[in-house]
Amino acid sequence: MAGNLHVRNLDDDLIRKLKMRAARHGRSAEAEHREILRQALANETEPDFDDLAAELRKLTASRKQTPSEVLLREDRDER
């Protein structure tokens, strides 16, 4: 599925460099932009859930943890 992407507020120098690179490769600036994005994201992989969960556990390891059953009991007792 093809879509459109609009990039706003680019530096004039960045646009000039993109156009120069596109000219070197015999492409339009838009085609060069597509190719740069394609190459940048070609080897990008999404982390799986287990890796994300492990990272989150590592980030929160030093924080005090309250078991969910304690929180549920406190909530029920307040009613």
UniProtKB/TrEMBL annotation:
<dbReference type="InterPro" id="IPR010985">
    <property type="entry name" value="Ribbon_hlx_hlx"/>
</dbReference>
<dbReference type="InterPro" id="IPR013321">
    <property type="entry name" value="Arc_rbn_hlx_hlx"/>
</dbReference>
<protein>
    <submittedName>
        <fullName>Plasmid stability protein</fullName>
    </submittedName>
</protein>
<dbReference type="InterPro" id="IPR053853">
    <property type="entry name" value="FitA-like_RHH"/>
</dbReference>
<dbReference type="GO" id="GO:0006355">
    <property type="term" value="P:regulation of DNA-templated transcription"/>
</dbReference>
<dbReference type="Pfam" id="PF22513">
    <property type="entry name" value="FitA-like_RHH"/>
</dbReference>
<feature type="domain" description="Antitoxin FitA-like ribbon-helix-helix">
    <location>
        <begin position="4"/>
        <end position="41"/>
    </location>
</feature>
